[in-house]
Amino acid sequence: MSNNKMLEIIATSIDDILQLNESGADRIELVSALSEGGLTPSIGLIERAVQVSALPIRVMIRPHSHSFRYSREDLEVMVRDIRAARSLGADGIVLGVLTEERRIDTDALSFLLAEARGLSVTFHRAFDEARDLEEAFDTLVKFPQIDRILSSGGCPTAVEGMDMLARLQRRSQGTPIRILAGSGLSESNLADFLAATGVEEVHFGRAVRLEQRLDGPIVPESVRRIKRRLQ
């Protein structure tokens, strides 16, 4: 395991962005509607976030929270959101698409990635709903633009999914994809989790917010303590 560990944190506002830039985060995932699992933020929020942040920003591309299956009209909306994120200077995007059979929707993914040229791409936790995570990984590795998979190992929390995350981490060696572990991680369980899985990138949401509320403000010292545990 290298010492090049990365801390990604969810932001939903410019206040969050400013706090994270001062607190030791390495990368920001920008979303709206955190209570819905994260939806595409507004154009104004993306534009201002990119202007004020020295950290790379990846923008959630998710038009609704009904499922990870999208109609042609949904995909047209997502393409336009990707285009906007790219034109506004975002570092990358975060997306995920599945078929009714819970496999990676390669047709939809190809359609979306055609608009994502020049952007880094994270495949989000739609991955955890795939019928076979190792099969899903092998599908995603065929798409060079995808450089991260956000996963809890197919379980409600990354701690519960440690065994699968360790397998995915091993599977990712020698590929362009890095495993980004998220859900249920905390200051107290992070060290044991990293040792058990070998994962080098972690993703935090409510755990760094006041009283762990979805609507709570970022607590900078929580971010700093987590970052120290990664060093």
UniProtKB/TrEMBL annotation:
Keyword Cell membrane appears in the UniProt entry: no
The entry's keywords: Cytoplasm
Compartments where found: Cytoplasm
PANTHER family: COPPER HOMEOSTASIS PROTEIN CUTC, COPPER HOMEOSTASIS PROTEIN CUTC HOMOLOG
Top-level lineage group: Bacteria
Protein name, as recorded: PF03932 family protein CutC
Family: Belongs to the CutC family.
InterPro entries: CutC-like, CutC-like_dom_sf
